[in-house]
Amino acid sequence: QVQLQESGPGLVKPSQTLSLTCTVSGGSITTNYYYWSWIRQPPGKGLEWIGYIAYSGSTYYSPSLKSRTSISRDTSKNQFTLQLSSVTPEDTAVYYCARELRTYYSGSYYSTGYDYWGQGTQVTVSS
User: Fold this and answer.
1) What is the pLDDT along the chain (127 residues), one digit of tens a residue?
2) Are 73 and 35 in contact (CB under 8 A)?
């Protein structure tokens, strides 16, 4: 059974960097063809995808957040980390980490959706 657990501070001051870690158990973050995402949900709004780090270590970010986002990993600890810089109160949200499986067929990758999620962690940006 795969489990994902987010951890990090629940309160961040404006202009600082938000840093969250997702610890994965029951499966390796380097296993082909899994993609490990960060997703958030601001209060009263829908889910917003932030970015992923792939099994290979490659990353891809939402264009709207790309300039402030960095996702990295520590394979020895089976963890991946989100850093979001220059935060404002608009970054207040519940932050989730999630696993996505993609299958390879005829030269392209196809998503099969997110099959495991962390329980989410509330991050509030406030002075």
Assistant:
1) 999 999 999 999 999 999 999 999 999 999 998 999 999 999 999 999 999 999 999 999 999 999 999 999 999 999 999 999 999 999 999 999 999 998 888 988 888 999 999 999 999 999 9
2) no
| Helix, strand, coil percentages for the chain (3-state, nearest 5) | 5, 55, 40
Residue entry with tokens 């610890």: 23
| Coil, helix or strand at residue 98 | strand
Amino acid at 25: S
- Measured CA angle at 71 (ends 65, 74), to 5 deg: 170
